[in-house]
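Narrative of activities, Objective 1.

The group set out to show that a structural description can be obtained from nothing but a protein's sequence at a throughput compatible with the screening campaign. Below is one input-output pair from the validation batch, recorded exactly as produced.
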Amino acid sequence: MIPKGTVKRIMKQHTEMNVSAESVEKLVELLQEIIVTTTQIAEQNAGKDKRKTLKARDIEQCDAERLRRKIVEVSERTEKVNILTNEILNVVANELERY
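Output recorded for this entry:
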């Protein structure tokens, strides 16, 4: 679990506004989701090299794949996305797979 106090302190260092408990909770949830997804992708990267240890380079290689997965997820779960927007998201996701 990511400490909410630490997240709130970091948030407050970068804004003059008040920070609600709800906003901290949402950010903690998002950060945890990012950590889970990044770890899963990094594990795949290490597995390709037949390693049992995650290294910094495995994490660094995750950005494009994590973004691609998020785009696909948004396009699949958003019922209000029109067909053209959905197609654009799919094209972007496919382009990211190349890298």
